[in-house]
Amino acid sequence: MPDFSERYGYKTSKILQVESIDDALKNRIWSYIYEYSEFEHGQNHIIYKYIWVNFFKLCIDEIPVCRNGEVYLIEFLKIAKYIYFNELKWHEIFDFIEFMQRIYSSEDKSKAKSFSEAINGILEEEKSGYRMIGNLITPITDETETKEIEDVFSHDIKQISEHVKTSMNRLSDRENPDYRNSIKEAISAVEAAVKFISNNEKASLKDGLRIIEKNHNLHKAFIDALIKLYGYTSDEGGIRHCLTSDSEEVGFAEAKFMLVACVSFCNYLLTKKAELDL
To answer: Is the pTM above the cut of 0.70?
Structure first.
C-alpha cells in the first residue's frame, strides 16, 4: 500500500522501475546484503576473497589483509561499497544479487530462500519491474505472472523446468536479451509437458494435445486455441524459422507474454493431471 505522503498527494508515486535502479532501491539492496551476509562480524574470509576475485574481478594479492593474513574487513568494505555505488551499472547490481544468491544456494537452501524472499520484498516495495525467481532476476512485473513461474518449478519435472529456466535466461539477459529464443524455449516447455502427460515422448504437440484431450476430458475449443498459439511460433516466418525479411519482429512484450502463457499452460496441464490421478 502507498504510504501517507503518496496517498494524499504530498509525494509523487514512483512509476515502475524498468532498466533502472534509483538511489532508494540501491541503498536498500546494499544494506540488506551487508546485514544478511554479516559483513560486520568479519568471520567468513573465504567468501570475502571469493567476492573480491570472482565478482569484482580484482587481483587476489591486492585484497587488504591484516597481519595475521585475514581480510582487513573495514578496508574491504570501503572498496566494495565504492565499486557498488560508483562503478556498477543498474544491471550489474542485479548481477551482484544473483552472485550472492548462488553463494547462499551452495551453502544452505533455506538461507537462499530467505534471501530471495527478502530481496523480492524490497523490489516490490520500491516498485522495481523485476523479481527474483529461483536464482535469477527476471523482468516479470506482475505478481500473478511471477507466481505462475514459481509454480512450474514446484512440480519438479526437469524436462519442463530446464526449458523454462533457459527461456527466463534469454528474456532476462540485461545486456543482450534474446527474445526469439526465449519464445522457442517457452514453447519447448509446453512440448515437454505434453509429452510427459500424454506419456508419449515422440508425440508432436498437436498429437499429444489430442491424446490429452481424450484422456483428460479437456474442452476441444481450449485445445484448438493452444494449437493456434503454437502455430504463432511455427508457421512460415514465425519464431522457429530462420530470420528473413518477412520474419515477424518480436520484442520484450511478445517474449514475456509467451513465457507466462506457456508456463501457465504447463501448470494447468500438470494440475489437471494430478487432480485426475487422485
So the answer is: no
